[in-house]
Amino acid sequence: MEAKALAAAASNFSPPPLGGEWMTPIFLIFIPALFALLMPLFALMKIVELRFVVALFCLLLCLMPLPFLESIQESGVIIQNINFFSFFEVTLTMGFFELMFITFFSFVSFVISLYGLSYEALSAPSEDLRRSISFLLALAGSFGMLLSSNFGNLLFFYLFTNTSIYWLIKSNLGTEAARKIYLFSNFLSSSFLILGVFTIYQTLGSGDMYEFGANLKNMDRFSLYMAMGLFLLSFFVKAEIFPLNVWIVNLYKESEPQNVAFFSAVTTKAYFIALIQLLAIFFKLSPLLQEAMILVGGISMVFANFHALRELSIKRVLAYSSMSQIGLIIMGIGYNLHQVNEGIFFHLINHSLAISLMYLSVGYIARQYKGDDTGLLRGCSIAMPISSFFFTLGAMSLMGFPPFSGFFSKLLILKGFADYQLFTPILFIFLASLGEALLYFRIIRTFYSNRPSKLIKHTIVPNLMYASIMILGALVIYLGVFPSSLFFIVSSGVEEFMNGKILIPIGIRAFQ
Asked: Which residue spans traverse the membrane (predicted)?
């Protein structure tokens, strides 16, 4: 009864005025999409280059979530229901959890666009319009996935984001191979999700997640398990989760560094958070799924790092390392413990910062050396000391060395497992850490070799490139020295997550 009452209240909910105006969650999706559509107008005006407009807008976007903070603190969650033309319904839910990640994604997008100001200036500007539109649309789609509380909406924003990223790859310097890889992954993952959403509609007659959560016990079990399997397959492909993540290695190898940083830090994390929100329901439907996530995460952690030892391409190494970090996170989510989840979500943010720092640092080095193989980059720290230093800083953070941010998040995770006397995941973490150490110290030793390879091409590194990697590097150090400045925010988001107030509150409460 409580679940049905909450579902009815959600459908009639009208958000309170924020900052004196009727600003609602839909604006967080609508504004980036609107700016993307205005890009052709900016191009015709020729007042400023489009990449500057994108960077400025991403900076402003960092401030957009702030007016929602007071309302969320008062009401706990904002639910917005919109009907378009009587047949298309949009249901968005925003709490502190979603607000935290939307703000973070906006900031990282700004830093990446800052890097792109100089990197893209070194290439032909012919694709500048398509690149700018695709970047903003992918960001809007990522926000849409975070806020959706309707399966139909989730499918729409999922397909929207997939398509935008494909055009972003096509508009940049990525090769034809990268476009084909991503096109195939889009087809595969989108097919799974379309079938899963179709199954939900056929079984429930509606895509509303509140109603879905309220009626889980009364729904056909075969249809539910089939839908759950299709959803998991779809998001496993996009969220870099073993074993459906191997395609990402070649994509990251062939794509431009600012694209890869955006994929790894923003869009992949948006897919992943959407998956976590769905798992909040599916764990209650099938407790065995938690054990499966633990197993998948543990295998992914160890497999990815030790497989990366065979690689010579640093971009491919970073892709495998990213799989390992995602494995750690999915394993922690499988246990679904409060203290562990605090470390997991803190690490999710830390990984985005560190992996972006490393991709942006090595991206420009590889451009100068016409390749990213370790042998070719031997001794590159002599010619490019700043980029090499910040790459090393990111690697130290991912390995969990103090005083960098990765140390604190891994410490939280290990402490959470130790408090519950769960030693198997601790063993997996130490094995993965050993693989990471072997992996990254090999690269660092190569960078700082006293027998450098010949520098193929050298230009003065633009200041904005240095500014972007310095911002990320400073954050990695700051959050390692003063982790409490972020921890209280993450802790509030985890509290909301564990209490079932996020995307699918009724789906969790129905089983309590």
From this structure: 22-45, 52-72, 92-117, 181-204, 224-248, 260-282, 288-306, 318-338, 344-364, 376-402, 422-443, 464-490
